[in-house]
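Page 37, continued from 36.
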């Protein structure tokens, strides 16, 4: 295996059709790393799918998907390996089309060098700027500005200089990264591996010469960081903590600290599996090694914990400011519950409204309420428990995270931690003497939150009002939170966009939870159209939460139209109205379903009270 210091990870990026795949194919071809059968297949494919008039189309070496060959673009990330006299290059050919920016983020996340291609005819484009900004955020240390297709601008030095000036004007604020500009023609091979007589005005290195000369030994990274992937206990005599060392090194006998608990102990053994399947003990392990660590004492250590140096631990926090690249067609919704995966931990997460969104053309920070597909911005991130971390600028492995839709499992965003918010360590839960159970005793009944959800006009408020009237007559302490009433006060600053609706319900969840802690039976009447926010309420409120779906056909609700809202929505005078041009996600497992087209209000109230009485009785 080539030593890690002699391995260089590259990502080729830039706008669509700037020549990324052709460049990678040229590198493979010129360094004689294409087998004869591959070359024969390439010749056949070039005649069928090529774009070079029957000659070898080197881009087809990496554009493996049928859709890529048909469209002449890269969709997936293709990895290729080039071995030179000095090092091993691991090259990721990333897509240039804006639609597949998420794939480019994946490819760049582990790169040491970004080869940013520019078509000399077109110069710096929006996607060029976006990819440069992403490589900066992802901490790629070295950038090669590969001005490609110089043959199509008659090898013009002036054109090359103009492109370099345009690039420098945009990237001036992206400090801390070295950039080398190289003119070339990937199609013809000029200045890729060998020099070019057409570029006699250029006296710098070829691309391969430059890559061979990059010093990548000083990669960013802190001390020992070993996120625990799993706990191995094949028998009663062995307990090991398996994971990959993401930075630093670990030695047998070293003092280590387990985070987030902070417990210290000593490394007893470092174990890997040998070729024969037997355990092999190592004296030490370095970044990139996957090992099992046995500790000298019994400690509480499990998946998601991080083993660090005792005297150089990571930080621990639950709130951060992060850079975000949004990677999903559905926009980011501030306040919506997501999952964050950082290292080997998966935790609940919410994002604030963006502090700003970056204009990829000008680099300006723009005001934004949300982030759309391929947007780049800065947000505050709150987790439901503290996790070990390092700022991304210091350690990629413990400073990066992905944001996941907790219901679909889709990866929706990538985040890079800037720093922990000070309140993460300054704010703690204050212990109180009188708890929720004591307040329930004083009230004379248990607390609950009855959450009525359904379309406008379904009868939610009418049923909630009747239930509260009956409870009040029985001496039960109640409070009714109605959607319209709350928007006159607490939520008067919110509109009806998806993001505002998420925030509307988030606030109501917190208020309802506090009222339930006070011992009240809380009745809430809100459309609450999104399943994610109702599940947030269930998670936050716990077994006191009773979800009642007031389910009527849209036609019935629209026929009632007590406030004239459906008529306005149909006329185009009311945007984002649930059931018309904004979706309603029906509950999957509500505690009760009521159809007010089939039941009277009194019968509906009877059904709700039957469920609620079981809660109040402790059943």
């Amino acid at each position: 295996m080539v030593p890690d210091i002699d391995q260089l990870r590259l990502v080729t990026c830039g706008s669509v059709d700037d020549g990324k795949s052709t460049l990678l194919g040229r590198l493979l071809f010129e360094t004689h790393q294409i087998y004869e059968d591959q070359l024969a297949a390439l010749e056949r494919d070039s005649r069928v799918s090529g774009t070079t008039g029957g000659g070898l189309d080197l881009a087809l070496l990496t554009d493996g998907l049928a859709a890529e060959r048909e469209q002449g673009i890269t969709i997936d990330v293709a990895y290729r390996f080039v071995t030179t006299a000095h090092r091993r290059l691991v090259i990721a050919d990333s897509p240039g089309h804006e639609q597949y920016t998420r794939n480019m983020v994946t490819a760049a996340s582990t790169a040491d060098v970004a080869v940013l291609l520019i078509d000399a005819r077109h110069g710096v484009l929006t996607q060029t700027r976006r990819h440069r900004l992403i490589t900066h955020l992802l901490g790629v240390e070295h950038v090669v500005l590969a001005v490609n297709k110089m043959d199509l601008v008659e090898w013009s030095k002036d054109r090359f200089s103009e492109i370099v000036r345009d690039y420098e004007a945009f990237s001036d604020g992206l400090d801390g990264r070295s950039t080398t500009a190289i003119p070339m023609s990937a199609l013809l091979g000029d200045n890729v591996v060998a020099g070019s007589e057409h570029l006699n005005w250029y006296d710098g290195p070829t691309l391969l010469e430059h890559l061979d000369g990059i010093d990548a030994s000083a990669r960013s990274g802190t001390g020992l960081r070993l996120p625990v992937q799993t706990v191995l206990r094949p028998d009663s005599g062995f307990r090991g903590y398996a994971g990959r060392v993401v930075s630093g090194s670990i030695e047998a006998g070293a003092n280590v600290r387990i985070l987030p608990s902070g417990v210290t102990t000593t490394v007893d053994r470092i174990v890997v599996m040998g070729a024969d399947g037997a355990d092999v003990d190592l004296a030490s392990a370095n970044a990139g090694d996957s090992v099992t660590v046995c500790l000298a004492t019994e400690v509480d250590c499990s998946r998601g914990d991080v083993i660090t140096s005792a005297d150089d631990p990571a930080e621990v926090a639950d709130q951060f400011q992060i850079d975000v690249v949004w990677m999903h067609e559905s926009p980011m919704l501030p306040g919506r519950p997501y999952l964050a995966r950082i290292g080997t931990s998966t935790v609940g997460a919410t994002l604030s409204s963006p502090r700003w969104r970056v204009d990829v053309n000008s680099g300006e920070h723009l005001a934004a309420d949300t982030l759309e597909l391929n947007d780049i911005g800065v947000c505050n991130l709150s987790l439901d428990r503290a996790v070990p971390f390092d700022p991304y600028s210091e350690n990629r492995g413990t400073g990066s995270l992905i944001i996941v839709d907790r219901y679909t499992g889709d990866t929706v965003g990538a985040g890079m931690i800037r720093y922990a918010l000070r309140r993460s360590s300054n704010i703690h839960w204050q212990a109180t003497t009188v708890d929720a159970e004591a307040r329930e005793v004083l009230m004379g009944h248990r607390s609950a939150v009855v959450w009525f959800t359904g379309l406008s006009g379904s009868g939610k408020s009418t049923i909630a009002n009747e239930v509260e009237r009956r409870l009040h007559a029985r001496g039960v302490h109640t409070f009714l939170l109605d959607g319209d009433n709350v928007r006159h006060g607490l939520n008067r600053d919110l509109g009806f966009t998806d993001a505002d609706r998420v925030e509307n319900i988030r606030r109501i969840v917190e208020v309802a939870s506090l009222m339930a802690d006070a011992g009240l039976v809380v009745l809430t009447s809100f459309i609450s159209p999104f399943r994610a926010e109702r599940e947030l309420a269930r998670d936050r409120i716990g077994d006191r939460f009773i979800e009642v779906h007031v389910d009527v056909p849209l036609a019935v609700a629209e026929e009632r139209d007590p406030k004239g809202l459906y008529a306005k929505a149909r006329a185009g005078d009311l945007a984002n109205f649930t059931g018309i041009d904004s979706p309603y996600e029906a509950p999957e497992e509500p505690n009760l379903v009521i159809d007010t087209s089939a039941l009277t209000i009194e019968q509906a109230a009877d059904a709700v009270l039957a469920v609620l009485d079981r809660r109040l009785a402790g059943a």
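The domain at 4-213 is CATH 3.40.50.300 (Rossmann fold). Flag for discussion at group meeting. Confidence is low (pLDDT under 50) at residues 1-5, 64-75.
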